[in-house]
């Protein structure tokens, strides 16, 4: 390929990147990723980078699995495309739906395919509104979400998300989306006991329902553990109370499992780890380990029954794309047959938890949070008061991320929280390397920002 500098120049000139400023591209140039194996990326200069984010939280089985490439090639030769509209179907879509129904908790037995998480969440908006309308309650259409949540970048996904900076671009949210605060004790809990804080934040859902009117609220959407919001783990008191409130007011519970699904928290789904009983789950990312774009809404018997009784006028050209379904199915086979969830539970997560928690002794690190293989640390100038670097929130996180990059480690920052979600196949030895590079990067960042 062309020399790196030339690639970077062409990239800056012609490629509009998501979530990146033009200045970042012209001044520094993008790092060009050329290939990848296991948990390591290789850039166009031959540098090996430890990918502690599994891409965008998705490459659960690790990079470079030939089985998926073989399955994709075979499927492309046999049936590269057909749709699932108007009474047609095909084997990969059928087999994957059956497998997902088997893995999903409770009676979530029905799969509506999308291309990724954003459009699966768009599906959910139309689905829950159609559900209540078909049940004779068309007014029941408001969806409650949480500030600082990320549910995608489409108009629907951005609206469901609680990121104010995203709302500003495009005059969003759409009408009928309301928000409650997130259960982020570290940043917002003040002097409260974490469990009391968790309960108080959950009860905001009840207050919001009563404010809007229970006959007007269709659903509550949340990730079991908020990912892109900063790996925010709610206090234990939070989810049982949310579940109680959804049950009491007959509000559909949508668990956005786009990050938490497929082993990330040690179980197939985050809802199982946190004992949540959703009516609908959004899945994507780890469903195919990112090898093919695919997402889905997995819905309960009751929701499916109502949707099947009408004609749900919704679908994407690539809903249930045969190649993506075949790849996803092979990915699930690998996760299952190689015991990767057991590896997370018994080997990788305990080892990472011990090492990750040890970062709390760093002068700049406040709380370290971890569930399964998703983890965060809060950066703070004062551990006692849990202060943030408020004047320029995000800057210290950004500097730390840059130091990680310099040390060939991909960690992400959300404001001043550093987050990781490595491939689930990561070994204890690789975790040690990850922690070593993280610590070195924190030291370097601390040198830059102290005083
Ligand atoms: N929901 C959650 C929780 C996500 O983290 C994401 C992506 O990061 C999405 C939805 C959107 O998924 P996609 O980028 O596949 O559209």
Brief digest:
The chain has 17 helices and 15 strands.
Topology:
Elements lengths: L3 H11 L7 H6 L5 E5 L2 E4 L4 E4 L2 H4 L8 H13 L12 H13 L4 E7 L2 H18 L7 E5 L8 H6 L3 H5 L8 E4 L4 H4 L5 H19 L4 E6 L15 H11 L3 E5 L13 H4 L6 E4 L11 E6 H9 L12 H16 L2 H19 L6 E7 L2 E6 L15 H12 L2 E2 L1 E3 L2 E4 L7 H22 L2
Parallel strand pairs: 3-13, 5-6, 5-7, 7-8, 8-9
Antiparallel strand pairs: 1-2, 2-3, 4-10, 9-10, 11-12, 12-15, 14-15
Helix pairs in contact: 4-14, 5-14, 10-11, 15-17, 16-17
Pyridoxal-5'-phosphate binds next to helix 6.
What structural keywords apply?
451 residues; alpha/beta; Aspartate Aminotransferase, domain 1; Aspartate Aminotransferase, domain 2; seven-stranded mixed sheet; 15 strands; 43% helix; binds pyridoxal-5'-phosphate
Query: Which structural class do the helices and strands define?
Result: alpha/beta
The percentage of residues in β strands lies in: 15-25%
Q: What is the topology, as strand order, of the major beta sheet?
A: 4-10-9-8-7-5-6
Quick one: how many beta strands?
Answer: 15
In percent, how helical is the residue content?
40-55%
CATH topology of the largest domain: Aspartate Aminotransferase, domain 2
Q: How many angstroms separate the termini?
A: 45 Å
- Proper CATH architecture of the largest domain: 3-Layer(aba) Sandwich
CATH superfamily of the largest domain: Type I PLP-dependent aspartate aminotransferase-like (Major domain)
**Unreliable residue runs:** none
Report the radius of gyration as a whole number of Å.
Answer: 22 Å
Tell me, briefly, the overall form.
globular
List bound small molecules.
pyridoxal-5'-phosphate
Kindly provide the name of the CATH class of the largest domain: Alpha Beta
Task: Summarize model confidence as the mean pLDDT.
Answer: 96
* Oligomeric state as shown: single chain
Q: In this structure, how is the largest beta sheet organized?
A: 7 strands, mixed
Question: Number of DSSP helices?
Answer: 17
GO molecular function: transaminase activity
Pfam families: Aminotran_3 (PF00202)
Cofactor: pyridoxal 5'-phosphate
Family: Belongs to the class-III pyridoxal-phosphate-dependent aminotransferase family.
């Amino acid at each position: 390929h062309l020399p790196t500098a030339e690639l970077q120049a062409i990239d800056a000139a012609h490629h509009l990147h998501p979530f990146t400023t033009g200045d970042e591209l012209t001044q520094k140039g993008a790092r060009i990723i050329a290939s990848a194996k296991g948990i390591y990326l290789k850039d166009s200069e031959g540098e090996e980078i430890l990918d502690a984010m599994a891409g965008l939280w998705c490459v659960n089985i690790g990079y470079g699995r030939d089985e998926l490439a073989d399955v994709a090639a075979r499927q492309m030769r046999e049936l590269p495309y057909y749709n699932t509209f108007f009474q047609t179907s095909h084997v990969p879509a059928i087999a994957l739906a059956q497998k997902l129904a088997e893995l999903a908790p409770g009676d979530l037995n029905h799969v509506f395919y999308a291309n990724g998480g954003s459009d699966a969440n768009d599906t959910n908006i139309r689905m829950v509104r159609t559900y209540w309308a078909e049940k004779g309650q068309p007014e029941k259409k408001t969806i409650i979400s949480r500030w600082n949540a990320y549910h995608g970048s489409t108009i629907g996904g951005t609206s469901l998300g609680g990121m104010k900076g995203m709302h500003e671009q495009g005059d969003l949210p759409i009408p009928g989306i309301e928000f409650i605060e997130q259960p982020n004790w570290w940043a917002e809990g003040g002097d409260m006991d974490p469990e009391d804080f968790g309960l108080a934040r959950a009860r905001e859902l009840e207050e919001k329902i009563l404010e809007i009117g229970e006959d007007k609220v269709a659903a509550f959407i949340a990730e079991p553990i908020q990912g892109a919001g900063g790996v925010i783990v709610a206090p234990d008191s939070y989810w049982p109370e949310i579940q109680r409130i959804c049950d009491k007011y007959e509000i559909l519970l949508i668990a956005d499992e786009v990050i938490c699904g497929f082993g990330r928290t040690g179980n197939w789904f985050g809802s199982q780890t946190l004992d949540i009983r959703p009516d609908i789950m959004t899945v994507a990312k780890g469903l195919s380990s990112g090898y093919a774009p695919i997402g889905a809404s997995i819905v309960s018997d009751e929701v499916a029954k109502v949707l099947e009784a009408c004609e749900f006028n919704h679908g994407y050209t690539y809903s249930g794309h045969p190649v993506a379904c075949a790849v996803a199915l092979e990915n699930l086979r690998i996760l299952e047959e190689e015991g990767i969830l057991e590896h997370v539970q018994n080997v990788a997560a305990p080892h990472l938890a011990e090492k990750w928690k040890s970062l709390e002794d760093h002068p700049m690190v406040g709380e370290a949070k971890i569930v399964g293989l998703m983890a965060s640390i809060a950066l703070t100038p004062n551990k006692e008061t849990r202060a943030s670097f408020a004047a320029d929130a995000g800057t210290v996180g950004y500097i730390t991320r840059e130091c990680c990059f310099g040390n060939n480690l991909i960690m992400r920052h959300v404001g001043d929280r550093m987050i990781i979600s490595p491939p689930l196949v990561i070994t204890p030895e690789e975790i040690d390397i990850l922690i070593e590079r993280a610590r070195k990067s924190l030291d370097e960042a601390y040198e830059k920002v102290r005083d």
